[in-house]
Amino acid sequence: MHRYRSHTCGALRASDVGTTARLSGWCHRIRDHGGVLFIDLRDHYGLTQVVVDPDSPAFKLAETVRAEWVIRIDGRVRLRPAGTENPELPTGQVEVYATEIEVLGASAELPLPVFGDVEYPEETRLRYRFLDLRREKLHKNIMTRGAIIDAMRRRMKGQGFFEFQTPILTASSPEGARDFLVPSRLHPGKFYALPQAPQQYKQLIMMSGFDRYFQIAPCFRDEDPRADRLPGEFYQLDLEMSFVEQEDVFAAVEPVITGVFEEFADGKPVTKNWPRIPYAVSMQKYGTDKPDLRNPIEMQDVSEHFRGSGFKVFARLLEAEQNRVWAIPGPTGGSRAFCDRMNSWAQGEGQPGLGYIMWREGGEGAGPIANNIGPERTAAIRDQLGLKEGDAAFFVAGDPAKFVKFAGAARTKVGEELNLVDHDRFELAWIVDFPFYEWSEDEKKIDFSHNPFSMPQGGLDALNGQDPLTIKAFQYDIACNGYEIASGGIRNHRPEAMVKAFELAGYDEQEVVERFGGLYRAFQYGAPPHGGMAAGVDRIVMLLCGTTNLREISIFPMNQQALDLLMGAPNEASPKQLRELHIRTNIQEK
After folding, report:
1. Are strands 276-278 and 232-242 parallel, antiparallel or unpaired?
2. For residues 445 and 504, what is the distance between their CA atoms, to the nearest angstrom?
C-alpha cells in the first residue's frame, strides 16, 4: 500500500464497502458523540467521515488530535448507519472505521478558522493566506479560476490562435499608468520596466509574419488602489490578429467569451447576440462606458420640456449651449418616501439634491418640479419616458461632461433600490466608437483617450483635416454587468499616421522613434493591417464566481496598500544589493 494513501478523501463510495483504505489529510472537524469520535478528514479532493471508538487501537491517539492536524489513517470502509447518510457529500454514504492513526503534522492554535465560512479581518486572512486557502469557498474559487483559464486556452486554440510568451523585462511605455522599474546591474543608471501590457510585442509578432497570437499575460501597473483591479499585477487574455477589420475581431472573440461564460455560469442566462453600443450612446443612456444592462433603466434627454419653463433653475441652465437636462425613469418609484430617500442619497454624494416628479393616481404629476412646469409639460415628460401612475422620474442638469458620472450612479441606485436589476444573468455588450483623443485639463493639452496605438476612423485624412476631439477610433470594449472586462482596437499600422497621431498628442517624431523604435522600424518593412484586444482574466473569474472582491479569486494577492503581508513585500534592499545596482536611496521624510 502507498505510504500515505490508497484513496483521496473524495474517492470512497458504497462500492468500496468492506475494503481497507488508507487516507491522509487535514482534520476538518472533530466531534465527540458519547465517547465515539468522528473526524471529518479533508484533502484537496474532498471529505471523508472517519469513526474511532474506544475499541479501536487508534482511539488513544485520536483523542489528542485537533483541528487542522495532518494525519494518516488506516481503516475499514463501511456504510453509514441508516438515516445518517449525507447526500451533500460524494462520500456521504460511507465512513471509515479507523484502526491506525499516524500524526504527520501537528497544528498550532489557528489564527483563523478553516471550518465554516466565517468573515474574518482581511489583514489576518492575507497574512495567513495558506490557511485561508484551505477554506472551502476560496479553495473552490481558485480551482474555478484554473478551469476558466483552461477553457479560454482551449477555445482560443479552437479558433486557430497560437500561444506565445512575450518578455517580462522590457522598456517603459505610455499605457496610462506608472511603470514598475527594474534597475539594470549590467547597465548602471538604466532601468527595465515590467510590461503594463504586451501591446508592442504582440503587434511585433504580427509584423513577424505570425497570424493569430494569444497569451494569458501577466501585466504590471504601479497604480493607486482600485476596487476593480488588484494592486501591482493582473492577468489578461491577450490576443492579436493579422489582416482583420473590427468585425473579424468580434467574430473571433465573441464565441470564446460567450462560451466561457456559458460553461461556468451555473445555468444563469448569458447574452447570445451582443448589442453594439456606441460610446456616446452608452454615456447618454447609462452614464458609463461599462453599462450594467441587467438594469432596464435608460436615461433620456428631456431638455426641451424645461426650456423656457417655470422651473427657473433648469430653464436658466439651458441658456448655455452645452447644458442639458437628463431624466432617470423610476418605474414603481412614485412614492414620497422613495423620492426623499433618493434626494438624501444625492446630497450624500456631494450634490445639492435630486429633483423628481411623481405620477399619482390618474396620471397627474406631483412634486415641486411638476408644480413649476405645469401639467402639459409634466405629461409630455411622462409620455416620452413611457411612465405611468405610481412611477417617478429623477433629473440631473448642467454640462453632461460634468454630471454624467453622477447620473450613471443615480441610474444604478434607482435600479437597485426598486429591485429592477436581474442579478441572475450575464449581460454582455460591445462598446464601440470611442473618441480617439480627449482634453487633459491637468496638462492643458490633447491626449489619447484610450489606446495610442489604435487606428483613427478616417485614417491619416482625419488626423490631418478633422478637429482632433471629434475623431473616433476603431477601439472597443466588452462590458458585462457593470464591469469593463475587455478592451482592444484595430491598430494604426501606417508609420506616417502613427507619427501624426502622436504629434497631435504633443510628441514629436524623434520622441516616437525613441520610445517606440521597435514598432516604428517594423512599420517601415511591410506592416499588415492588424488588431486585437485583451480580456481581464481576474474580472471574468470574479463575475463567474459571484463575488465583487478580486482577492476572493486570486491565490496570493496584496492588500489595498500594495503590501504582500504573507511574504513581507516590498522590503528593504541590503547595502550590498544597492551597491551592485549602483543605486542610492533618497527617502523623503513625511
Report:
1. unpaired
2. 9
Check residue 225 and give its pLDDT: 67
Q: Coil, strand or helix: which one is 483?
A: strand
Say if residues 280 and 468 touch (Cβ distance below 8 Å). no
DSSP string, 4-38: S-SS-TTT--GGGTTSEEEEEEEEEEEEEETTEEE
Cα(135)–Cα(4) distance, integer angstroms: 23
DSSP 198: S
Nearest CA among 31, 34, 91 for reference residue 67: 31
Query: Are 581 and 183 spatial neighbours (Cβ–Cβ below 8 Å)?
Result: yes
Torsion sign, CA atoms 311, 317, 321, 322: negative
* Distance in angstroms (rounded) separating the CA atoms of residues 521 and 510: 13
Helices and strands per DSSP (H, E), number in the chain: 17, 22
Indicate the pLDDT class of residue 174, thresholds 50, 70 and 90. low
**How do residues 282-338 score in pLDDT, each as one tens digit?**
999 999 999 999 999 999 999 999 999 999 999 999 999 999 999 999 999 999 999
Rounded CA gap, 423 and 547, in Å?
12
Strand bridging mode 212-221 / 162-163? parallel
> CA 366 to CA 357: how far, in whole Å?
6
Helix 400-417 vs helix 336-348: angle between axes, to the nearest 10 degrees?
Answer: 130
Q: What is the C-alpha R_g of the chain?
A: 30
**pTM flag (> 0.70):** yes
pLDDT of 589: 78
Residue 283: how many CB atoms within 10 A of its CB?
Answer: 21
Which of 302, 304, 301 has its CA nearest to residue 283? 301
- Secondary element (H or E) of residue 357: strand 355-359
Give me the sign of the Cα torsion angle 535, 463, 206, 161.
Answer: positive
**Shortest CA distance to 219 belongs to which of 187, 278, 177?**
177
pLDDT band at 468 (very low <50, low <70, confident <90, very high): very high
Chain centroid to CA 572? 31
- Find where cell 473618441 sits: 435
